[in-house]
Design brief:
With about 350 residues, this protein is of the alpha/beta class. It folds into two domains: about 5-155, NAD(P)-binding Rossmann-like Domain (Rossmann fold, 3-Layer(aba) Sandwich); about 165-195 and about 225-285 and about 300-340, UDP-galactose 4-epimerase, domain 1 (Alpha-Beta Complex), CATH 3.90.25. Helix content is about 40%, strand content about 10%. The chain is globular and about 55 Å long.
Length: about 350
């Protein structure tokens, strides 16, 4: 990996942590982001859109590595998701190739598998996305495959939902309910196993993909925690840490799914349909490939990752309020009609 590294989405939760790690390791970092965040340790930040060829061209000039982490959220309108994810990836790859960047690490998602029939899910499982976000990410991977055919080295990482300091999004609902002393509901028994990932481990995976031999890394890698339990156990860890003696409460599966589905379609709940489906069955990936081929060794379990997020949230929420735009994973998402449910729990 050469000295200058470009990080797209440098002011997001992952981007911020990645920039800090790279700077601490002695790299010159150039950030590319639509938003402005004062105090970034990056040597330079280009304020621009990943769909803007001029902005991307300015950012990647002279780079030895581009880490493409900018993305849309699953909660965005479908047209916007497709534009940001697909058109943005197309622009980043085209301008990186034009600038002769030796390597682009592309952040995809396990959502490209949809609702996989094979669990744990290997990288060889077909891409069968079920929602606009997953479909856009799958199309972005197709662009990566074309770039590889043209001679580029583009490792693809497919992480599970990642957590850690800075992560809010839908998890802010769990944290808020726990801190205020409410029980927390789950679908059914909550005994499904759901793999997550700590942001520190994801950054380790990115750096391994950045440094590994081109012939080894020029493929897809699942990234997730090696130690994980059930949703009930992981969420209970947060309730226990809050100290109010509250418990995870199971809801009857069919009526709960039907109600959440109606609220999601009406725009009254942040729990989108793909997430509802994921909460109903085991969801974890096989990480053997990245462990064996790149030496990936996750340092954090699901519980440790979610607790690190919760403790960060507690420290921040006591000293300042949060915006409720829900536009990024660092914002707490609006709970909509689910706010009323707190009175029941």
């Amino acid at each position: 990996m050469l000295n200058r590294v470009v990080v797209t989405g440098s002011n997001g939760m992952l981007g911020t942590a990645l920039v800090e790690r790279l700077v601490s390791d002695g790299y010159e970092v150039v950030g590319l982001d639509l938003t402005h965040r004062p105090g970034s340790p990056a040597a330079r930040v280009v304020h621009g859109d990943i769909r803007d060829a001029v902005a991307v061209r300015e950012a990647v000039r002279g780079a030895g590595l581009v880490v493409h982490s900018a993305s849309a959220l699953p909660s965005y309108p479908a047209e916007q998701i497709n534009s940001v994810v697909v058109d943005g990836t197309r622009t980043v790859l085209a301008e990186s190739r034009r600038a002769d960047v030796p390597r682009v690490v592309h952040l995809s998602t396990g959502s490209v598998y949809g609702l996989p029939t094979q669990v744990p899910t290997p990288e060889t499982h077909p891409r069968q996305p079920i929602d606009p976000y997953g479909r856009a990410k799958a199309r972005a991977e197709e662009l990566v495959e074309k770039a590889r055919a043209d001679g580029m080295t583009v490792p693809v990482l497919r992480p599970k939902t990642f957590l850690g300091p800075g992560r809010l999004g839908i998890f802010a609902m769990l944290f808020e309910w726990a801190e205020e002393g409410h029980h927390f509901p789950v679908l059914g028994s909550g005994r499904v196993r759901s793999q997550m990932l700590d942001v520190e481990d994801l950054i380790d995976a990115i750096l391994l993909a950045a440094d590994g031999p081109a012939e080894t890394v020029n493929t897809e890698f699942n990234v997730g925690a090696a130690e994980f339990g059930t949703l009930r156990d992981d969420f209970q860890t947060v309730l226990d840490a809050a100290g109010h003696g509250k418990r995870v409460v199971g809801l009857p599966m069919r009526p709960a799914v039907a109600t959440l589905g109606l609220l999601a379609r009406a725009g009254l709940s942040p729990v989108y349909m793909r997430l509802i489906h994921k909460l109903r069955a085991d969801s974890y990936m096989d990480i053997t490939r990245i462990q064996k081929e790149l030496g990936f060794a996750p340092r954090h379990s699901n519980r440790e990752a979610i607790l690190r997020s919760f403790e960060w949230w507690r420290g921040r929420s006591r000293h300042r309020g949060f915006a409720t735009t829900g536009r990024t994973s660092t914002d707490p998402w609006r709970q909509g009609a689910l706010t009323l449910a707190k009175a029941v729990f």
